Amino acid sequence: MAQHIAQAEGAAQSGALGEDLTEAGTTVASACVDSGGSAVGMPQLCGEWFPNQIFWLVVTLLVIYFVLSRVALPRIGAILAERQGTITNDIAAAEELKLKAQEAEEAYQKSLADARTEANRISEETRAEIQSELDAELAEADKRIAARTAESEKEIAAIRESALDSVRQVATDTAKEIVALMGKQDDAAVEAAVAERVKGNDR
Amino acid sequence: MAENTEAQGAAAADHGEGGGLVFHPLDQFIVEPLFGDGPIRWYTITNVTFWMAITVLCIVALLVWGTRGRAQVPSRSQSVAELAYGFVYKMVEDVSGKDGVKYFPYIFTLFLFIVFANFLGLIPTAFTTTSHIAVTAVLALAVFLTVTVLGFVLNGSKFLGLFWVSSAPLALRPILAIIELISYFVRPVSHSVRLAGNLMAGHAVIKVFAGFAAVATIAPISVLAITAIYGLEVLVAFIQAYVFTILTCVYLKDALHPSH
Known about the structure:
heterodimer; A: about 200 residues; mainly alpha; two-stranded antiparallel ribbon; about 0% strand; B: about 260 residues; ATP_synth_F0_asu_bact/mt (chain B); hydrogen ion transport (chain B); cell membrane (chain B); membrane (chain B)
């Protein structure tokens, strides 16, 4: 109703201003547009366009609202939540892996230290064993050497004894011969003298 | 009506002395039927319908088609959509508080409509739907009514505490209450006029400079001026959408937490 009245008013005004109501056969059906197609006043204040704008605005807003609330927002929200979840999970996994790596390093260091002490122990043991074996061998060798030495000494002593005997014999024989050559025959005295002499030499 | 007649007179005078220099800076705001010449009824398909439909298509393109990949590592359009989502979501959360988040789809709808309508209006020869007070008034009234109803539903009579500044001296409170009441009811007016006024003024000024471009001697200056103002308008298009949205959040906060 109001629209019609506004139209009528507009038409009346146009008429009053002496403008043509028609141009190229078309009726100017608006109070807000003059015959030349220009705006009359501010188009923003043209009441007869309000219902149209409001209707289409409401339709537009409803469509946008439904598209957003039914499709777009749940989807974007899900994407963002999923991404957040992935990031959180990844960070947690990374943290876990870091811990594991630390543990592994600790275990490695520990086993390294263990191996080192074990190696030390084994080498120490081996060394001690070798040392004891060596000692035993040395003792054995010493004993053998001592035995051999004693034997040798005995032999040497025997040889010396026999050599001394031989010397005494030779000396006695020689002395006897010499005494015989000089015409005397006193074997016992020669022998005693040689023994005396050899003893003295011995000393 | 008097205003109309006056403007008409001015228009007529314009036509009379026009010559080479004819300004019709407001003709870009005329609503006209898309098909035929008939009268504009509430259901007529007009340029308003056309540009609002394009707004909807752009929004669907960005937020639905753009995010079709649902990728963990977003494509360009998806990251723009996520950026817009995050921008408004954070705004609602920061300004209105955690319990304001359930009104986020509503506020996001307003923001997207305004920002896309503003930017589409910057296309030369386009019709700017948000430059019309009828459109912004509906948006602002919807916010105003929603917030007021929500305030009373959620807080009951405690919502009136919004107007009773309990931190002020007792003698001042009634005066402050009147001021608060007036400012509360002025909200939808300023809310809507700010948006429509900014856009309309910018577009009209561009058109005026475009009119000057017909005169050869000042054409370069006028083209430069159009370029500069266009740049400014790009800023205004976003800032006004932002301002409208953040004010909506502020009003919503008042409804959710009416105490000062």
